[in-house]
Specification:
Shape: globular
Order of helices and strands: EEEHHHEHEHEHEEEHEEEHHEEHEEEH
Number of domains: 2
CATH topology of the largest domain: Aspartate Aminotransferase, domain 2
Largest sheet: 7 strands, mixed
Distance between the termini: 37 Å
CATH class of the largest domain: Alpha Beta
Strand order of the largest sheet: 4-12-11-10-7-5-6
Structural class: alpha/beta
Strand content: 15-25%
Number of helices: 11
CATH superfamily of the largest domain: Type I PLP-dependent aspartate aminotransferase-like (Major domain)
Bound molecules: pyridoxal-5'-phosphate
Length: 398
């Protein structure tokens, strides 16, 4: 028997998708092919820094498309230079490699650390990473990740990654050997369900890596570019890593990523690293437009204010509906529901025109546009409140 054809058959099934087709978006709102509108608190997975189709990006794309789209990474282009300068200036790091996805930037970070280890630390290559961490979906970045569902997928793994629990300095110290070249982590574990590295842990790791002569790699792919109310999450604690990776918010919705390194660490030699689309002017122009917006005088203060409002409203909602803690910083937040109802809540929210993410069975994640306004946050809370009431009623009835 041939199964009934579906309009989605040609799209490889790599995730359960609802039978909705989005066709346009503006700011915090999406529209589907039936003309229904949705309030978007997923925003391309914490990607659409300025919301859907913001003027600054539309203009940057249109203008750059008319000037120069690609001239190969074998040549400099003006937008590549501009974006690398901006990122170096804001991060305190000195060398920038532009890439196309977070996984690719992290893969580059791992390679750079190994190269540095070969040159300067007696061929050390091991990287200490965190349980439940997420660094991407290439073979090496999956191996670096601490996602339990991936433990036996695509064997054999890339070797050389040692896992420790987040915020456990004793475990980190115990894991350091002469083979260790770096410690790599997210300042806030986003995909795991928004779990923060403590300020103390981050400061201690910075001091420890300096003392031991190894590298600190921060994966700021989800937390960077204003998401937490500062340009980089590390700015909250005042540390600078040796290597940092960015993606998601940097492109504001287009494929753009960056690998940043201290000048003493940036030891790739010609031929070691590259990629056909790396540093292309059209994506770099978008990155510049994003950084320009984020660095407007009041932009990050507004993110902090919106983030505080979101956290306060979530905390009140949680108390009203027997939920648990609210976690996160700025506009990267999670609500623990205390029960494994998060996927059902997200599904019912969608039916009511609200996009939410459930990274864990008991947890909802909120990653709206950094330009989300307080009314949109209130609107989201109202919809979520209704869904939680309904789900509680349905659970009580069974
Ligand atoms: C999303 C993410 C990645 C992977 O980025 P891709 O662009 O999907 O390859 C890596 N690290 C963190 C922390 C992320 O949130």
């Amino acid at each position: 028997m041939t199964p009934t054809p579906s309009p989605f058959d040609a799209v490889m099934n790599i995730t359960p998708r609802p039978p909705i087709v989005f066709v346009s978006g503006q700011g915090s709102w999406l529209t589907d092919s039936e003309g229904r509108t949705y309030l978007d608190f997923v925003q391309g997975w914490a990607v659409n820094t300025l919301g859907h189709s913001p003027r600054a990006l539309v203009d940057a794309l249109a203008q750059q498309a008319g000037r120069l789209i690609n001239c190969s990474p074998a040549y400099y282009n003006d937008q590549m230079i501009r974006l690398c300068d901006m990122l170096a200036q804001h991060s305190g790091l000195h060398r920038v490699f532009l890439a196309n996805s977070g996984a690719e930037a992290n893969e580059g970070a791992i390679k750079l650390a190994r190269k540095w280890g070969t040159k300067y630390r007696g061929s050390a290559y091991e990287i200490i990473t965190m349980d439940h961490g997420f660094h991407g979906r290439t073979l090496a970045t999956m191996s670096a990740s601490g996602k339990s569902q991936w433990e036996h997928l695509y064997e054999p793994k890339v070797s050389g990654f040692v896992k420790v629990p987040l915020n456990d300095l004793t475990a980190v110290k115990a894991a350091i050997t002469p083979r260790t070249v770096a410690i790599m982590l997210e300042p806030i574990q986003g995909e795991a369900g928004v779990f923060e590295a403590t300020d103390t842990f981050l400061r201690d790791l910075r001091a420890l890596t300096r003392d031991c002569g190894i590298l600190l790699i921060l994966d700021e792919i989800q937390t960077g570019i204003g998401r937490t109310g500062r340009m980089f999450c590390a700015d909250h604690v005042g540390i600078t890593p040796d290597i940092m990776t960015l993606a998601k918010g940097l492109g504001g919705g287009v494929p753009l990523a960056a690998l940043l390194a201290h000048r003493d660490v940036a030891c790739f030699e010609p031929g070691d690293q590259g990629g056909t689309f790396c540093g292309n002017p059209i994506m770099a122009a978008v990155g510049c437009a994003i950084i320009q917006q984020i660095t407007q005088p009041t932009f990050l203060d507004a993110v902090t204010r919106a983030g505080d409002h979101l956290a306060n409203r979530l905390a009140a909602l949680s108390q009203r509906r027997q939920g648990g803690e609210v976690r996160g910083k700025g506009l990267l937040r999670a609500l623990n529901l205390n029960r494994n109802i998060a996927p059902r809540v997200a599904e019912q929210a969608l039916a009511r025109g609200l996009l939410l993410n459930a990274p864990r069975p008991d947890t909802l994640r909120f990653m709206p546009a950094l330009t989300v306004n307080l009314e949109e946050i209130d609107r989201m809370i109202d919809i979520l409140d209704g869904v939680l009431l309904d789900v509680a009623a349905a659970t009580d009835a069974t």
